[in-house]
């Protein structure tokens, strides 16, 4: 355990011998070659991703058209997703019944960002037909600086239907949202304070969007019994066990009397 500090001291004092210095220079040259190959690999991977994004686009479009035939497909998918469902309030679930299409659109330069589009039918909550949350993760171009940012379509709430005002004023005591970073779906949608660590957006883009069917088809989860119910069941089992023991003793006593 003392070797690491001694090595640091040796480097600081400049006491490396000639052989060690030469070896370190060779290692550094190897590392530069590895870094260059990694950078080239990243560029090649990006080209492949861009190629297959274009090939996947017609499949996604076809899937979207087919999904329109299934009532409540997207709201059901969101509600069945283990993490995304954690930010859905009951009032929002009613609003999201009007969600007719969900689409993720990656930028041409995949590393620079993406958009999530939510398409809505006419509904009682807002006027928008499309709500878009857009992420610019930094590309170094003149348009987008290296500083990540995100933006959201302003929601045109109908009078008295602003769910942000209604839901955020409610007591936050729903058990399923207890560990959630955001209180509600629309609170997440309008929050652009930390685009780099937006877990909900990443889950939608990388998990839910590529294969929503797996969440739409999730079977109903059996409700686990409460602790009180388990205790009652245990008490009943003990009583039944005692009764059986008692009956056995009575039978033995009757046999002896006979």
Automatic annotation (TrEMBL):
Residues 221-258 have a biased composition (Acidic residues). One of its GO terms (biological process) is nucleosome assembly. SUPFAM superfamilies: NAP-like (SSF143113). This is Protein SET. It holds the Pfam family NAP. Belongs to the nucleosome assembly protein (NAP) family. GO terms for cellular component: nucleus. It comes from Glossina fuscipes. Residues 219-258 are annotated as: Disordered. It comes from the Eukaryota.
């Amino acid at each position: 355990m003392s070797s690491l500090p001694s090595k640091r001291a040796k480097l600081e004092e400049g006491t490396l011998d000639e052989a060690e210095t030469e070896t370190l220079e060779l290692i550094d040259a190897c590392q530069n070659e590895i870094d260059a190959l990694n950078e080239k690999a990243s560029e090649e991977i990006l080209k492949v991703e861009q190629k297959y994004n274009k090939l996947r686009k017609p499949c996604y479009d076809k899937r979207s058209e087919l999904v329109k035939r299934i009532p409540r497909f997207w709201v059901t998918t969101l509600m069945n997703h283990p993490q995304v469902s954690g930010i859905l309030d009951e009032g929002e679930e009613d609003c999201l019944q009007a969600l007719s299409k969900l689409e993720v659109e990656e930028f041409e330069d995949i590393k620079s960002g993406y958009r999530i589009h939510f398409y809505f039918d006419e509904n009682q909550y807002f006027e928008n037909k499309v709500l878009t949350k857009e992420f610019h993760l930094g590309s170094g171009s003149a348009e987008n600086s290296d500083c990540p940012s995100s933006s959201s379509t302003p929601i045109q709430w109908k009078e008295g239907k602003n769910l942000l005002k209604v839901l955020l004023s409610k007591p936050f005591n729903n058990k399923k949202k207890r560990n959630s970073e955001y209180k509600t779906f629309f609170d997440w949608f309008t929050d652009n304070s930390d685009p780099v660590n937006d877990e909900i957006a990443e889950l939608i883009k990388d998990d839910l969007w590529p294969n929503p069917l797996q969440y739409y088809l999730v079977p109903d989860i059996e409700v686990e019994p409460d602790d009180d119910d388990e205790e009652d069941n245990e008490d009943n089992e003990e009583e039944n066990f005692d009764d059986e023991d008692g009956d056995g003793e009575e039978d033995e006593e009757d046999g002896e009397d006979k």
